[in-house]
Amino acid sequence: MLAKKSFCAWGVIVSAMVFSLNANAAKNEGVLEYKLALAEDGKTYQVIMRPTTTPKPDLSLTGQVTLKVPHDKNFKITNLTSVVEGSNWIEASRVAAPKEDAAHDYISFSFVGLQGSSARNFKWEKGQEQVVFSFQNESGCINDLTLMANDDPFNVSPNSANTNPGNQFTNLGWGAVNENHYKGNYGKPIMCPK
After folding, report:
1. pLDDT in tens, 3-16
2. Cα angle vertex 94, ends 88, 100, to 5°?
3. Which of 48, 38, 63, 23 minimizes the C-alpha distance to 179?
4. In the prediction, which pLDDT does 6 show?
């Protein structure tokens, strides 16, 4: 009888461990989707984000968005505007025509270190889109502008430029400070007005 009780106790412990691991794995999955869109003015690009769950607590800490542009277009960022108060997005790095994809340039935007109550300014809500920042190209709208995908050939470590171009976002309501809560991209390709 003792063997049966021990076996049952171990079964409960193992089941609890499996449930815990599955719950943690689900929590660690990405939840924030990115989209690149063209504003109604036909020249301003908007980076829009949409969460699949509402974070609790809602504390956004860091983020990175990587843009992929045709190398032969000489794309130059102007009028970079952070829409969410307290999230000062900057052009953090640019890699021109890396050997993994010499037809494109990669431009990464980042914000770091929201302090105090400004970490709550994104106000994420499940399924709600939010424009996070916007920018323009010095020479106007161009097609074939995209956000870097998870499976992009340049999104490897190490890459030829020894950079970390991947998209990233961390919010404590979606998991730990060392986790990336970016999920993937959505939306249609950019089509400039004629």
Report:
1. 554 444 433 333 33
2. 135
3. 63
4. 45
Among 194, 192, 193, 185, CA closest to 36? 185
The pTM of this model reads: 0.84
Whether the CA torsion 55, 60, 62, 63 is positive or negative: it is positive
Q: Write the burial class of residue 105 (CB in 10 Å: 0-12 exposed, 13-18 middle, 19+ buried).
A: buried
Quickly list DSSP for 28-58.
HS--EEEEEEE-TTSSEEEEEEEESS--SS-
- pLDDT per residue as tens digits for the range 140-176: 999 999 999 999 999 999 999 999 999 999 999 999 9
Structure-derived torsion over alpha carbons of residues 53, 146, 167, 29, reported in degrees to the nearest 10? 40
Nearest to 51 by CA among 182, 145, 161, 149: 182
Order of all β-strands in the sheet with 77-82: 77-82, 130-137, 44-51, 32-38, 182-185
Strand partners, 32: 51, 182
